[in-house]
Amino acid sequence: MAASGATNDEMMDIGGAELDNNKNEKMFTLKKWNAVAMWSWDVECDTCAICRVQVMDACLRCQGDGNRQAGGKQPECVVVWGECNHSFHHCCMSQWTQQNKRCPLCQKEWSIQRMGK
Amino acid sequence: MRRFGTEISFIIYDILWLGCRDLKGVHKSPEMLARYCDLLLKKTGRNYEDQELDELLNQAMIIFKFIEDKDVFQKYYSRMLANRLVGSMSASDDAESSMITKLKVACGYEYTTKLQRMYQDIGLSKDMNEDFKLWLGRQQIAEPMKVDFSIMVLSFGSWPFSQDSNDTFLLPQVLEPCVNIFTQYYQEMHTGRKLSWLYSKSKGEVLANCFGSKYTFVMSTYSIGLLTQYNVKDSYKLYELVEATQLREDVVTQIVQLFMKANILKSFDDEDKLSLQSEIYLFKGYKNKRYKVNLMQPLKTEVKLEDEKTQASVEDGRLMECQAAIVRIMKARKIMEHQNLLSEVIMQLNHRFKPTIQLIKKCIDILIEREYLGRREGEHNTYEYRT
Ligand SMILES: [Zn+2]
Ligand SMILES: [Zn+2]
Ligand SMILES: [Zn+2]
Predict the structure, then answer these.
(1) DSSP labels for A42-72?
(2) Structure confidence by residue, pLDDT tens digits, B96-110
């Protein structure tokens, strides 16, 4: 995160200065903060190795189907993590495991560690 | 309504004719049309009545029909919509969604998928802020937030923004509790997600007590990080500001320039001749008729980066759309001869952009490599869909 990289000394400096200023009102005081953040799946590789589409996007098949739901939100096209920590589209992996019960990346036996929510 | 008639003919002239004339700028007309829509839809001093606005948007849609590279328009439109939504700069929610509907009617559902998802994210964020407040009420928090906090959480990929991974920044201490507490909430609500904060798009309101009157400045988080340094002392060398904020030198320079233009900071050096050694001091004689001053402005380097990304995303988008079209066609037909597939793909994509044969071939090769397609045994020119 961006806040890292501050050494302890620097933190102390700023803290000390703030104390001095607290006697009178500070010159500049932050009142309100409207933050913007982005969420993404916490994956090591952001591309699904099975369909080669970014895991944040719907998998290639779901895109090809042109899912007609409002806003293109496809609730079941989430990410799935295996015990080996590799991750894929849940859609892609369900199809894959019908033929092969091993992880396509490391060949270890596939078992689900967690599902994205 | 007649005056819009003349107005629109000028715009058609500008957008189509000037757009065509610029030989290098193949992408110019769609970009200009998107900018025009942005002007209509953005909150400004003079905004239109709902009905007038709708009429103007309808006229923009007439121009839209003449534009060849509809995917380029989409990229620029989505970038400007994103900035309107994130900056709460939309003149009218109804007009925004009615424009999305017009585009959907003209180009089909997929064309507006990402625009709609952006819209959804804003709605979800509103609900989430409510929920977060309730959650906060139930928590025992050691270091509570000292500012009025709200947030928009956008899904990566639907928005034309990227994580500023090479941007360093020392978050002002007062904001640390906001980031920590909200992250804790978000991790409790979801599984497998991570958050990255877009500080340059996050804005804050700063109350200034050091001038003749009290002013409220609206500014980006980077600007907050820089200006609050002046709580400690009245003057800094530019390199000291770089050290204190840990922002890149060119970012600090641009923010200082912005404050200099606003007459809040001053230097003995000219605005455009700042160096690391320049002395930047607080101008205590600051005056403004307005008590709330908007200093939220995208930095030039950010705009340039966004321009480049828009261009790149057009290329990426074409590659993806073309592959999706091939998969769609082959899934329906199962077996297809090369020439027929080419013309079918061109037909499907024509309303969006004109794919080159080269592009389609490239996509076929990619899909063969990924085993979505195969060449038929004995008939090299015929493809089969593989499940
Ligand atoms: Zn996939
Ligand atoms: Zn899927
Ligand atoms: Zn694995």
Answers:
(1) --SSSB-TTT-SBTTSPPHHHHHHT--SGGG
(2) 999 999 999 998 888
**Nearest-Cα residue of chain A relative to residue B210:** A27
Partnered with residue A87 across adjacent β-strands are A81
Q: Which residues of A touch B153 (CB under 8 A)?
A: 37-39
Q: Answer whether B151 sits within 8 Å of A34, measured CB to CB.
A: yes
How do beta strands B292-294 and B215-220 pair?
parallel
**d(Cα A103, Cα A85) in Å, to the nearest integer?**
10
Q: Where are the alpha helices (DSSP H) in B229-379?
A: 238-245, 249-261, 300-333, 338-349, 357-369
Q: Which residue of B has its CA nearest to A25?
A: B209
3-state secondary structure (DSSP) of residue B381: strand
User: How many A from CA of A89 to the centre of ligand 2?
Assistant: 6
User: What 8-state DSSP symbol labels residue B231?
Assistant: G
Question: In order of start, what are the domains of chain A with their CATH numbers?
Answer: 60-116 (3.30.40.10)
pTM: 0.80
Residue that the structure tokens 């199809």 belong to: A95
Is the distance from CB of A53 to CB of A60 less than 8 angstroms? Answer: yes
Could you report the per-residue pLDDT of A12-49, keeping only the tens digit for each?
Answer: 444 334 444 444 578 999 999 999 999 999 999 989 99
The CB density around residue B302, as the number of other CB atoms within 10 Å, is 18
Ion ligand 1: protein residues whose beta carbon lies under 5 Å: A 48, 50-51, 59, 89, 92
CB contact under 8 Å between A28 and B169, yes or no, is no
Q: How distant is the Cα of B27 from the closest Cα of chain A, in angstroms?
A: 26
- Dist CA B188 CA B186 (whole Å): 5
Nearest to B18 by CA among B43, B3, B35: B35
